[in-house]
């Protein structure tokens, strides 16, 4: 297996606050990796560093072996890193199809229809995006991510606001997708994590606390103390 | 759908063409002025309406064209077509340089910074009074404005010829704007206006798009300024003042921001309003102020924007 | 006059300009800092303050001193009242939307300016200084009133600083500035705070106008300069940063004074603007503003 993404000593401070500290992280091509951790652990900041939304204070990021630490975000997107926002960020005044069009046109494709169908929004193409239910707006984000045809798809808490049925569909979707792209998934919903992730990385206070298979993470006492213990209770 | 849009714009241009056969001399002159300034307003709208960048300093680009044409013809010995071309090129250069600087500021910062640069340009006009003749202004002699071009004599003192030239310029502009805003490029501009962050995360080079929109907008303003100077034979510092940065904002807001015909309509309506009220002498600025406040409070989408919202959803 | 005395004169003039500029820029900055809106009519509040000072001094019997004291009360109060109405009837109704506020206050700028022209006329209006003591240097005499302006501005600035950093109201303002939602959650009457801040910003610039009017005559077009200078100061000082505004006012006022004395005021303004360009290219958030990304 080859690494699609690698970070070395990656750090970001906000003033005195160390949101991400000295993270060495490797992601294999084709895997589904979950990143979990308590609120404020630095997960969003970490993937922000990878996608280029946040500038690093120190460290390097390698994507397919090339140093991308100083590339602006849009160039990283063109290299194949797609990012869906934790706080929904869509074009509220445009229609659902227009939203996805903006993504597929950037890639020079006409994938809009199929992307919408994959996430289950096929019948809502002409609805104004701002009028979608919250969960559907999250799915629209995912559809935009798909339309970018990424090599690495970063999903920041995509199942927030989805119903149980929609979550099941979503799990299926990510499984299918992972045949084409590597997936980096931030998720609080443990059943989703456990059923999807090949490996799990646990972030706590900006550092990697543990990393391993779902079983290993479940059995790890440190993780249980820091995170799972409270979540499972 | 597209046919309907093209037909509408053709109809507006045809109506303007037909008007010259029935309108009085005064109306012809006013309409010429409106059409030339509508180019300014439409250029402004590309940036403000479509890209969401509110500039308070476009007078610097208008003045760039104005003075380039006036100084070019009166001092540098250029012919009218040469001066027009030179003014356009200088417009490209000046708006490119300004774009690099002012686009670094965002939101409110952008508005203030454009305002200030425009004021610096205005002060520069005054500072070099030897060349610009400041407040008094440069007058372009009629001998310069009658010239031969491609073997024909063109007389810019002839009101009807001016009218038709202005109309031709406007037609080109309308076509350009229509094509631009309906192209992928135009859609990305709207995307940037609606959600800049998201657009960058879809892989678009937002800074480049904004820069291009800025340069087109500034250049169109310069073209309008150059036309104004050459057609009306005058370039004075008032035309470079802050007031002239506010005018296109007002016209665009009144007619409807991010509509293709709104800026033109707004320019026309504002001229009518001021004309109508000028019985009370020199109230044009008071009206400008009052209309701005009223628009913001009661009518934020402007005339065409409201019509589009209520009745004609397809209006571009 | 030789170089050094000339320089002394320039520095004195610069200090006076800076002191008044700091007051008006502080007004603008305060409003921006707390309410996140830019008041483009700020300069017209200045002009109105100057006009009212002239009018009050003219109406008030008992000589320039009594007139000055009366103006010191009437002008800020009247301008504050107008600001109160503006805040209630205009800004609140557009929900302090930054863009709409700029457009609306541009409208207000023209309305106030043209009203002043209609009611007060186009001629410049002189106001006598409250006292005419002259300080005699070996090379030139200098108006004691101008130095009083510096002292008075300093006192007002100190007063504002004290209110902001040492009083309960200052604390409330800072919470509101930090985040409107949080403030509401803490039971702070955000609307009232906004009214007070907007009125205070206008009163500050009116005080600056009352101070300046014995030095520079009142005129209906005088508002644009302080507006642009305040913008420059606020940008260099960082939008919303009060310490930055005061420091920047002195940098700009001093440069402006010196260049105006040795070269020309127009050149001075052009140079200040270029300073802003430089600041923006190097640090888009201003010299003293906080890092945002
Ligand atoms: N732009 C910013 N400025 C200042 N502090 C920030 C910024 N972004 C994040 N932080 C801080 O960095 C820390 C990590 O935040 P981050 O959003 O990365 O956590 P998270 O793990 O994604 O949390 P959650 O599970 O709530 O989404 C938090 O303390 C947060 O307050
Ligand atoms: Mg997060």
Q: What is the tally of beta strands of chain A?
A: 10
Distance between the termini of chain C: 52 Å
Roughly what percent helix of chain A? Answer: 25-40%
The main sheet of chain C comes to: 2 strands, antiparallel
For this structure, the CATH topology of chain A is Rossmann fold
- Main sheet characteristics of chain A: 6 strands, mixed
Helices and strands of chain C, in N-to-C order? HHHHEEHHHHHHH
Number of domains in the coordinates of chain A? 1
Rg of chain C, Å, rounded: 19 Å
Number of helices, where a helix is a run of at least 4 consecutive DSSP H or I residues of chain A = 9
Mean pLDDT of chain C: 84
Please state the structural category of chain A.
Answer: alpha/beta
Shape of chain C: globular
Low-pLDDT regions of chain A: none
Q: Strand order within the widest sheet of chain C?
A: 1-2
| Overall spatial form of chain A | globular
Name the structural class of chain C: mainly alpha
Q: Could you describe the 3D structure shown?
A:
Chain A is α/β, with parallel strands linked by helices and about 230 residues long. Chain A has a single domain (about 30-50, about 70-225), classed as P-loop containing nucleotide triphosphate hydrolases (Rossmann fold). Chain A has helices at about 45-50, 75-80, 95-105, 110-120, 135-145, 165-175, 190-195, 215-220, 220-230, and strands spanning about 5-15, 15-30, 30-35, 60-65, 65, 80-85, 150-155, 180-185, 200-205, 205-210. In chain A, helix 3 (about 95-105) crosses helix 4 (about 110-120). The model of chain A has no long low-confidence stretch (mean pLDDT about 85). Helix content of chain B is about 75%, strand content about 5%. The longest helix of chain B is centred in the C-terminal third of the chain and has 27 residues, at about 205-230. Chain B starts with a helix and ends in a 6-residue tail after the last helix. Chain C has a domain at about 20-220. Chain C contains eleven helices and two strands. A two-stranded antiparallel ribbon of chain C has the order 1-2. In chain C, a hairpin with a 4-residue loop joins strand 1 and strand 2. The longest helix of chain C is centred in the first third of the chain and has 33 residues, at about 5-35. Chains in contact: A-B, B-C. The complex binds adenosine-5'-triphosphate and magnesium ion (MG). Adenosine-5'-triphosphate binds near residues 14, 40 and 41 of chain A.
């Amino acid at each position: 297996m080859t690494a699609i993404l690698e970070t070395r000593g990656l750090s970001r401070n906000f003033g005195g606050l160390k949101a991400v500290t000295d993270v060495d992280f490797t992601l294999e091509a084709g895997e589904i990796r979950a990143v979990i951790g308590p609120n404020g652990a630095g997960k969003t900041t970490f993937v922000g560093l990878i996608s280029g939304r946040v500038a690093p204070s120190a460290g390097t990021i390698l994507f397919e072996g090339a140093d991308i630490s100083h590339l602006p975000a849009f160039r990283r997107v063109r290299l194949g890193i797609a990012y869906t926002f934790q706080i929904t960020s869509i074009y509220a005044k445009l229609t659902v199809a227009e939203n996805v069009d903006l993504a597929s046109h950037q890639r020079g494709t006409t994938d809009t229809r199929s992307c919408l169908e994959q996430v289950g929004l096929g019948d809502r193409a002409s609805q104004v995006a701002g009028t979608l239910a919250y969960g559907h707006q999250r799915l629209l984000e995912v559809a935009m991510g798909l339309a970018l045809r990424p090599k690495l798809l970063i999903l920041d808490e995509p199942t927030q606001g989805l119903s149980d049925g929609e979550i099941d569909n979503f799990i299926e979707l990510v499984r299918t997708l992972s045949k084409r792209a590597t997936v980096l998934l931030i998720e609080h919903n443990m059943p989703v994590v456990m059923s999807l992730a090949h490996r799990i990385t646990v972030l706590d206070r900006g550092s990697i606390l543990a990393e391993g298979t779902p079983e290993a993470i479940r059995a790890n006492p440190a993780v249980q103390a820091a995170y799972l213990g409270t979540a499972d209770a | 759908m597209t046919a309907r849009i093209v037909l509408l714009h053709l109809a507006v241009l045809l109506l303007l063409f037909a008007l010259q056969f029935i309108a009085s001399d005064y109306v012809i002159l006013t309409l010429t002025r409106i059409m030339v300034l509508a180019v300014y307003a439409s250029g402004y709208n590309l940036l403000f309406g479509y890209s969401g960048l509110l500039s308070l300093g476009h007078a610097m680009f208008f003045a760039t064209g104005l003075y380039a044409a006036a100084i070019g013809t009166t001092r540098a010995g250029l012919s009218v077509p040469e001066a027009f071309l030179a003014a356009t090129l200088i417009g490209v250069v000046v708006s490119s340089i300004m774009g690099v600087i002012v686009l670094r500021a965002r939101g409110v910062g952008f508005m203030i910074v454009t305002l200030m640069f425009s004021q610096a340009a205005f002060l520069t006009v005054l500072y070099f009074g030897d060349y610009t003749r400041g407040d008094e202004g440069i007058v372009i002699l009629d001998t310069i404005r009658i010239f031969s071009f491609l073997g024909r004599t063109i007389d810019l003192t002839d009101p009807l010829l001016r009218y038709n030239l202005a109309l031709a310029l406007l037609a080109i502009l309308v076509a350009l704007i229509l094509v631009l805003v309906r192209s992928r490029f135009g859609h990305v501009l709207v995307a940037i206006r609606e959600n800049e962050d998201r657009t960058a995360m879809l892989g678009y080079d937002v800074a480049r798009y904004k820069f291009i929109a800025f340069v087109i907008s500034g250049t169109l303003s310069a073209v309008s300024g150059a036309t104004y100077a050459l057609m009306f034979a005058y370039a004075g510092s008032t035309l470079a003042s802050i007031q002239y940065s506010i005018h296109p904002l007002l016209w665009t807001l009144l007619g409807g921001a991010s509509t293709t015909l709104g800026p033109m309509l707004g320019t026309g309506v504002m001229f009518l309003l001021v004309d109508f009220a000028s019985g009370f002498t020199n109230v044009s600025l008071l009206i400008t102020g009052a209309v701005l406040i009223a628009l913001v409070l009661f009518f934020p989408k402007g005339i065409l924007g409201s019509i589009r919202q209520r009745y004609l959803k397809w209006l571009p | 006059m030789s170089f050094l005395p000339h320089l002394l004169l320039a520095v004195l003039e610069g200090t006076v300009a800076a002191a008044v500029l700091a007051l008006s820029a502080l007004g603008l900055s305060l409003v921006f800092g707390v309410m996140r809106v830019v008041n483009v009519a700020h300069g017209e509040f200045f002009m109105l303050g100057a006009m009212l000072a002239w009018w009050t001094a003219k109406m008030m019997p008992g000589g320039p001193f009594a007139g000055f004291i009366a103006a010191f009360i009437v002008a800020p109060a009247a301008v504050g009242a107008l600001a109160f109405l503006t805040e209630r009837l205009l800004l609140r109704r557009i929900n302090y939307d930054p863009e709409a506020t700029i457009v609306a206050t541009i409208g207000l700028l023209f309305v106030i300016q043209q009203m002043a022209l209609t009611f007060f006329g186009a001629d410049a209006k002189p106001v006598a200084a409250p006292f005419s003591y002259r300080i005699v240097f070996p090379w030139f005499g200098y108006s004691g009133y101008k130095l009083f302006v510096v002292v008075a501005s300093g006192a007002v600035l100190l007063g504002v600083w004290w209110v902001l950093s040492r009083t309960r109201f200052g604390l409330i303002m800072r919470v509101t500035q930090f985040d409107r939602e949080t403030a509401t959650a803490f039971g702070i009457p955000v609307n009232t705070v906004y009214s007070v801040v907007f009125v205070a910003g206008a009163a500050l610039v009116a005080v600056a106008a009352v101070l300046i009017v014995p030095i520079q005559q009142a005129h209906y077009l005088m508002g644009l300069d302080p507006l642009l200078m305040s913008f420059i100061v606020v940008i260099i000082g960082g939008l919303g940063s009060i310490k930055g505004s005061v420091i920047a006012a002195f940098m700009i006022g001093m440069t402006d004074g010196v260049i105006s004395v040795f070269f020309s005021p127009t050149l001075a303004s052009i140079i200040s603007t270029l300073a802003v360009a430089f600041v923006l290219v190097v640090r888009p958030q201003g010299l003293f503003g906080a890092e945002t990304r």
